[in-house]
Amino acid sequence: MSDFSEKQIHPNSRDCLRIIQLTDTHIFAENAGKLLGLNTRESFEAVLARLMKEEIAPDLILATGDLSQDASEESYQYLLEKLQPLNIPCFWIPGNHDKPEVMQKILNHGNMMFEPHIVAGNWQIVMLDSSVPGKVYGNISEPQLDFLQQRISNNQQRHSLVVMHHQPVAVGSQWLDGLGIKNAPELFNAVASNDKETCFLWGHVHQDFVGEQAGVQLISTPSTCVQFKPGSTEFSAGDEAPGYRYLTLYPDGRVDSVLHRIHDIAFTVDYSIKGY
Ligand SMILES: [Fe+2]
Hints:
single chain; alpha/beta; Purple Acid Phosphatase, chain A, domain 2; 7-stranded mixed beta sheet; 6 helices; binds fe (ii) ion; hydrolase; EC 3.1.4.53; 3',5'-cyclic-AMP phosphodiesterase activity; Metallo-depent_PP-like; metal-binding
């Protein structure tokens, strides 16, 4: 992921930038693929149906990793076929279940792309690949940390949304907290010189988390499929509904976000499974 070009987005509204975050879709090659008892294609399609019905003119979609469960070409092809017709630019990053080289091959078509730097009005978005081949935990490479720091110092008039798959802070679940970004202090250091607002946004933890650390706003978003139980010591599935997040970024640096859950789809989570 060494392509350090820049993508310009012209927001639909002059007053704000509207973003949809979809994360941890965990799509399988097969239609019938289930994660912890939940059919991930069905819940993803229910999420898509809801957001197409309710959301007004989003400027872009951020797909923040674990897009596939099995890293198959079929799973990414399915995502391309579902997201392409929305006609909204969709920027993706890999998660621990993904294979970046397969994503590059399938998901760089039309409105779907990997793009490390996006500029939109008073905001810049930096997309980081926190995945580590063969590992569940995350790490931000030195070149990406340098890139982030450079984008901060070269865009001092802009606020920064920094997007990654893994969590940069503990979220209060012991088993998950060991599977976040190992070099998180370096990530916070990379944005420490920012005089404007900074917000970190991620997936991976399959639960809602909102916080603040060292002046950085922190947001995680539930999966479009099965959730993890907040506050758990060991791996546990949760019974919260599938969801997505709608973020509104204002020129003054304010970030409003609304978490939407799809309560009206019937699903059964298999709580007896002790891993994913
Ligand atoms: Fe995940």
